[in-house]
Design brief:
single chain, alpha+beta, Uridine Diphospho-n-acetylenolpyruvylglucosamine Reductase, domain 2, Uridine Diphospho-n-acetylenolpyruvylglucosamine Reductase, domain 3, 3 domains, five-stranded antiparallel beta sheet, four-stranded mixed beta sheet, 25% helix, binds flavin-adenine dinucleotide
Amino acid sequence: MPFEHYKEVDLSSRNTLGLPSVSQYLGAFHSVSDLQHAFEFARNLSLPCFVMGGGSNILLPEYLPGLALLSSDRSIDIMGDEVTVGAGASWDNLVAETLKNGLFGLENLSSIPGTAGAAPIQNIGAYGVELARFVVSVEALDLQNGLAVTLTVDDCQFEYRDSLFKRHPERFVVTRLTLKLSTRFAPILAYQDLQRLPAQITESAEGLRRAIQSIRAKKLPDYRVFGNVGSFFKNPTLMKSVIQTLEQAQVLNSNTRSAQGKVSAAALIQAAELGDLSVGQAGISPKHHLVLENRGGATLTDVLTLAHLIQEKVERRFGVTLEIEPQQLTQLIHAPNPKG
Ligand SMILES: Cc1cc2nc3c(=O)[nH]c(=O)nc-3n(C[C@H](O)[C@H](O)[C@H](O)COP(=O)(O)OP(=O)(O)OC[C@H]3O[C@@H](n4cnc5c(N)ncnc54)[C@H](O)[C@@H]3O)c2cc1C
């Protein structure tokens, strides 16, 4: 079957940072068999391949030589307390759909942009909840042997904003995932912002979802106004002694570090007084110091130069290394499988 594809596709409206980018080829896949055809097409033309979702956690170069692949499987199938979702479904639609069907658990993950297929890549998390706690299995094409595989939650090796998939982007293309949810609503309100909410709001999952949507809208800049990828740096985990020193210096306090030693990268950037830093049209959002924004016409070089400046200044000031969260697609080339 021929693989349907487009040539020289403008991706600037397909990445939330709004970086100018053109992909040499772009094609969609619905099934593993479509993917196998796509890789055959790529092999024949010696094209590197890479997979993207909604473009909300990637840094695109101006030109992507190769074949960009997107899932068009937006199916959501509910069976009892389990839901199986296609990689191309919008994550937030999935959250809304599960709540509508009386399945609970995903409400704290409301309003995270992007697709369901990308959710396991960095084990999305927000407001004290991570995807990993719901995952039954992830279906993927294993590019090492060209076969469809079903990975269990343990196989996925989920960690904070990390997984097997993120560590081996050349190996797996996620096609579907199955999550186990709860038929009983048990709100998770450990996160500080949620503790302050009145009980009548948090007594229903819809109420909690609306509250989280509203908190996020207030805290985070709208990527449709100023392009961004949400948090640009991961929150680092530091040793107790380092946290104590930073607390004594009034850089951190009980609100900006967790009992497990994770500290707010935004607090470090703020304490380093970097809020006004900008490079070209890339700057730090005045709404949230962890968000780098495109003020109109920023290039990948602007964004990365700004990010490296922030890393350098935070490291020099506090001895803490900040790790960049979004993926640079140039590092994410899926080598076409020679055996597939
Ligand atoms: C305003 C804003 C707020 C955000 N808030 C949060 C938040 O609270 N918590 C959080 O965790 N993240 C957050 N993010 C980051 C982002 O939304 C998530 O990481 C999301 O899961 C990315 O989905 P995507 O479909 O846009 O993936 P993309 O950005 O297109 O891709 C991200 C990575 O996944 C890979 N990938 C995508 N699909 C597949 C697939 N099917 N198979 C294999 N690899 C694949 C890509 O190659 C790339 O490495 C936020 C982003 C924005 C813009």
